[in-house]
């Protein structure tokens, strides 16, 4: 930690943090199989900054966006964090993946840089974080528990399998789902971890089929979930796949095809339906972009920062973070938002979504 502090100080003395503009950086998987996820937070931050600049900036200062790719790799995330310190970033809208956010947090903390992640849901991000770790999305323990309780109640007597991709977010979702399921008196029949990025999951599929799994909870991303489900359908399985927000991208349907019909996933209640988001959603639609997933969360993160910086009349990261955690109500595209003392959203609400004919829509009550 002492070496890291010296590294940061040296950069500051070199003038790395001096700049005339406010620099907002967003970091995520901007290339490769998860690029659609990175695009969500890039698009959200980009439009929010454009709208803020059109209204005069933050405290009269122009805001610029710096986009970085960490490929959801915690080791690469640390290198990106060091780069953003040299660039003098004021705010990190990210990282997207929990493992990356957790690994990079200490770098930003030492440099006095605030994080407002739109998508890192692992509890460790804020539980083990410091003054600078904040998010505008819910936590895996809340989302996984929400799903586990509902599945246990709705599918009594069914064989339930739980798998995850081993990532911090995926493993955390699956763990909390299992905890809630077991607390309801239901024991899973299969509990497995799979390696992400493969094109064939036959061994795992055969294990699931042998266990006669009726309901399969997947803690992971859309591509692998779509592949696993498609392979199960090809072997005449009628399994119902259930997952978290990682399944709610177009990649899921492009991979699973019609095998994805009826798949269920949890996420925050659709912010696109909120009056607070109406004008921003219209802007995205005009640009021929569907603001799905965490797009509006990224927009909200920039909004929250702008309101906090204007309120404290400062760009000091710690001062802004303290203001955000002081139960101040923020007016965002996600509706009124308030953070607790750890930087988590107070009272996050979740909803169910269902895939049908290539699109997912919110369904209430639980299907």
What does this structure look like?
With 367 residues, the protein is of the alpha/beta class. Helices cover 43% and strands 18% of the residues. It has helices at 2-13, 35-54, 74-87, 98-111, 124-127, 140-154, 168-183, 202-210, 222-234, 250-256, 278-286, 295-312, 317-324, and strands at 22-28, 63-69, 91-94, 114-117, 133-135, 160-164, 190-193, 215-219, 240-243, 264-268, 330-332, 335-337, 350-356, 359-363. The strands form three sheets. A seven-stranded mixed β-sheet has the order 7-6-8-9-10-13-14, sandwiched between helices. It has a five-stranded parallel β-sheet with strand order 2-1-3-4-5, with helices on both faces. Strands 11-12 form a two-stranded antiparallel sheet. Helix 4 links the parallel strand 3 (91-94) and strand 4 (114-117). The chain is elongated, with a radius of gyration of 21 Å.
